[in-house]
Design a protein that fits this description.
By secondary structure, the protein is an alpha/beta fold. The chain contains 7 helices and 9 strands. Strands 1, 2, 3, 4, 5, 6, 7, 8 and 9 form a 9-stranded mixed β-sheet that branches. A hairpin with a 2-residue loop joins strand 8 and strand 9. The longest helix has 16 residues. The chain is globular. The N and C termini lie far apart (about 40 Å).
Length: about 220
């Protein structure tokens, strides 16, 4: 009986493969950015393409504009010749206008999409757009989205950014508590760098706080 239980997860995975989308028709998304203007929300996604096993991946950027969050995802998917695959997305950057909306709406939508990982890291763009942060120069030829994820993941250790994955931020919003996200800006060399903390109350962005971000609420 124990052996059957051990192999059950494997059997489930094998069964799921029959319904999986063809991998050659997928465009893997490594990071996302949400901006807003007077007319629309603007979603920018970074896809990482690799032509061969020997070659390095090359980031490409796609943009979709619409009035609502779901419509943005539909708009961006309609302009791609393959399905967007969000399971590898590392980071979601928000501009301050988007963050001033009720963040619960965005969180609920992301939860409704089973491809979005609960561990994706959120951050707020400071003094620039979210798309500019997403496409910022990264050292060593790294894909910018992956570089951003490392910056945020290591922030707590380096005392320059709070570590705030999606599930933790969403739990804070659901509890009605004040919440925080790391703020990211562009440094003098054009590289994305931590820049304090973005504060939220009532599910909406209310301002930035300077100083040691690890002193902010992050649990």
């Amino acid at each position: 009986m124990k052996k059957r239980l051990i192999f059950l997860p494997l059997l489930l995975l094998l069964c799921a493969c029959g319904n999986a989308r063809e991998t050659n028709l997928l465009s893997p998304v490594s990071a996302l950015a949400f901006d807003a203007n007077e007319a629309n929300l603007v979603l920018t996604v970074e896809t990482a393409w690799q032509d061969s096993t020997e070659g390095s991946a090359t980031p490409q950027y796609l943009t979709g504009k619409a009035r609502t969050i779901p419509q943005c995802f539909t708009a961006i998917a309609s302009g791609v010749g393959s399905d967007l695959y969000f399971s590898h997305a590392q980071v979601l950057i928000l501009d301050t206008q988007v963050a001033q909306h009720n963040m619960l709406d965005l969180c609920k939508f992301l939860c409704s999409d089973s491809e979005i990982r609960l561990g994706i890291r959120f951050a707020v763009a400071h003094n620039t757009s979210a798309a500019q942060i997403l496409q910022a120069w990264a050292p060593n030829g790294d894909i910018p989205g992956f570089a951003l994820e490392r910056i945020l993941a290591q922030g707590k250790v380096r005392h320059n950014a709070i570590d705030m994955p999606f599930f933790r931020f969403y739990n804070q919003l659901l509890s009605g508590a004040d919440a925080n996200l790391p703020a990211i800006t562009l440094g003098p060399d054009g590289q994305a760098i931590p820049d304090g903390t973005a504060r939220f109350a009532g599910g909406k962005f209310i301002g930035f706080t300077e100083g040691d971000p690890t002193n902010a609420v992050s649990t």
